[in-house]
Structures are given as C-alpha cells and as structure tokens.
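Tokens help. Consider this.
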Amino acid sequence: MLSHYTVTSLIHAKELKAVSLIAAIPNENEHTLYFFYRKEKVVLPITVTYSNSTYLDFIVESFRSLEINVTQIIIAEEANLLKATLKIVSSTATRHITLNLNDGICLAAKCNAEVLVSADFLDKYGIKVTKELLERSISDI
C-alpha cells in the first residue's frame, strides 16, 4: 500500500510560494480545494479524492508518537505528474518524503502544515483574480 512513497534528500522546485487554503468544496468522492497566493492575487484550485483515512490517521498518529512533525507540503509538477513532498522534522533529522498529491494534501491538512507550491505550478494552474474577472463572474449570475 505504501509503495508510492519515496524519500528524497532535496526539493527540485526552483522557487516556492506560500499559499493559504481559502475554501474546500466537497463533491461526491472528491473535494476541490482553493488556495490563494496573496502577493499576486492568484487562486489555485486543486481537486483531490480523499483516500482511506484509516491508514492516513495511522500515519499521523505514528508520527505524533515518534515526535515527528510534518511542517510543510510542497506541491509541484514533475514529468507531467502532480506530486506532494512533505517536510518531516524530528529531533534528530529533517527529511523530505514525496508521495501522491491526494495523500500529501490529506496528511498536510491533518498536521496543519504550511503549503508551498512551485512558481511554475502556480503559473500553469492558477487563476489570476482581476477586476475584469470579478465583473465577468458577477454579470454571468
């Protein structure tokens, strides 16, 4: 079950930007999460399918019992695959664990981790909020 997890020693993203979760809209089997990058006024929608929370809860509780903290999640695209890299910190080491986006976002949310996205990812998938966009959205209602 955990075969898609790998440990990496460095992050490949060149420039990272901190985003804030502003909304989570549930659908049948998925949630669309909306992140916001305030400096450039960009909204970033990401749709995730929540996995079996039992094993994610087990991982979170294991981390807590071992005094391991998930402090960041880095979301980036690599070879056309969306990936999440968690920064985990213990009293003796700091490691980065790369895993699939769904599990990464779920674990980060359960651990209240800071969310970072690569600049390239934000440019490709983000929606710039402009006065014109807002006016167009309101007129379509």
